[in-house]
Amino acid sequence: MARKLVIILVNTDPRNGEELGAPFFQASVAAAMDYEVEVVCTATSGRLMKRGVAESLVVKPGSSKTVHDFIRDAHEAGVKFLCCSPNLDLFDMTEADLIPECAGIVGGAYVIEELMENDDTRVLTY
Predict the structure, then answer these.
(1) Among 40, 72, 92, 101, which is least packed, fewest CB within 10 Å?
(2) pTM of the entire structure?
(3) pLDDT tens, 20-71?
(4) How far is CA 47 from the centre of its chain?
């Protein structure tokens, strides 16, 4: 049985808040089920790892819970958040710009190797 879940946010657009609830909620659920969970934010979703972005977004209009609250909840449940390295240049970020919940920066080779070399890993993409 697989013990690790990698969620790749690549098609999820932060400008559409309703797309952001499911991946973070499912990451939290998987962590609560004692799976190792990583969320890799890449492409446009990489913006979510920049301070100030997720704090200004909500999943549902009128909600007081921000997308950063969802990220924080998942992180507290044990989810590890990673930012894809090209996002730093793409969005004019430095490592200092990343939210505290972001555990670090990874490149494309990390994702490929994790998925191809680790038989205990499953992937979800959003």
Answers:
(1) 92
(2) 0.95
(3) 999 999 999 999 999 999 999 999 999 999 999 999 999 999 999 999 999 9
(4) 10
